[in-house]
Amino acid sequence: MKSRDLTILIACFVLILVAAKHGHEIAAVSVPVPSSAAAISASPTPIATGPILAQVKQLFDPAPATTSTRSVYPRRSNWTLLDPHLSVRAAGAMDLETGVTMYQLNPNERWPLASLSKLMTAVIAIEDVGVNTRVTITPQDLSVDGISGDLQAGQQYTVEQLLTIMLTVSSNRAAMAIADTYGFQEFVDAMQQKASQLGMTQTTYVEPTGLSQLNESTVTDLEKLAAYIYTNHPEIYAITRQPSATVEDLNTGATNTFWNINEFSHTRSDFYGGKTGFTDEAGENLVTLFTYGDQHLLFVVLGTTDDRFTQTEILYNWVIQAFTFHA
């Protein structure tokens, strides 16, 4: 018998003894004895099967090396570069094309969303309410804090128009009008159900504007939502990157022009979209997508104690220096 064959047989018997000692079930199968051992035994020999045996077998019969030389990009290429110094509570950076995570800081810490909540509000407005649905502004809609959007009772807009107001100037009243049209609690329930469907297990929504500090999420969950919007509703990002937008009251024909409060919509041509958020409890939050070559890079910063746009640019610059995106 060759030394290699004898070693395999010994390894198999040792595995049987170990498995029996620890109470593991052993499946017996018949395998031919190596030809060089035919003089010892002419009948098949039962041996233990399972993942452990498979690992041992691979030591002696390794799988042929793959011929693919493809590398996964982006990949970290500059390891001498220190991690970025950020004044944030949590942050993350991800390549949306590949799902590669490039940076994380406290990615699973729950934090108040503020107006980042409106990203999910937009998803439910499109999927459940319908962009062509007409909405009449009511006094109840105007009772919520925040005057941005210059909405007045009796005005009528489509959901699409209200989304434009909500996403460019972060109008709480536009968000409330959409939710009230559908049914406030039903709308909030739909937001929470969608979060569950997307695997956003650390996210809570109790209203559609983000004014409540009970609206909470994490960097990890926000990355899931941002990726879903990128794939299924890029029109949301298209709205958010407009420097300005004009809407028309369907009742009177009067028009109103709004200037985007997202600084990147005015200063960066590579800005693909995103959403701002601020409350006293949350501090400054920001979700941002940039186009980089044929990639789309996602950045999330939560709870900034400094300017959220500056913090995002610090993280962006670090990613570009630390990672290689193509072979």
Question: What does this protein look like?
Answer:
It is a single chain. The protein has 327 residues and is an alpha+beta fold. The protein has two domains: 3-60, no CATH class; 75-324, Beta-lactamase (3-Layer(aba) Sandwich), CATH 3.40.710. Helices cover 36% and strands 22% of the residues. The protein contains ten helices and 15 strands. It has a five-stranded antiparallel sheet with strand order 5-4-14-13-12, with helices on both faces. Helix 3 packs parallel to helix 5 (172-182) and helix 4 (159-169) packs antiparallel against helix 5 (172-182). The longest helix is centred in the N-terminal third of the chain and has 19 residues, at 3-21. The model is unreliable at 14-70 (pLDDT under 50).
Quick gist of this model?
The protein has 327 residues and is of the alpha+beta class. The protein has helices at 3-21, 51-60, 117-129, 159-169, 172-182, 184-197, 219-232, 234-240, 264-267, 308-322, and strands at residues 28-31, 45-48, 75-76, 90-95, 101-105, 111-112, 134-136, 156-158, 216-217, 244-248, 255-259, 271-279, 283-292, 295-304, 323-324.
Q: Which tags fit this structure?
A:
327 residues; alpha+beta; Beta-lactamase; five-stranded antiparallel beta sheet; 36% helix; globular
With strands numbered from the N-terminus, the spatial order across the biggest sheet is 5-4-14-13-12
What is the rounded distance between the termini?
49 Å
CATH C-level class of the largest domain: Alpha Beta
The profile of the biggest β sheet is: 5 strands, antiparallel
Mean pLDDT over all positions? 85
CATH superfamily of the largest domain: DD-peptidase/beta-lactamase superfamily
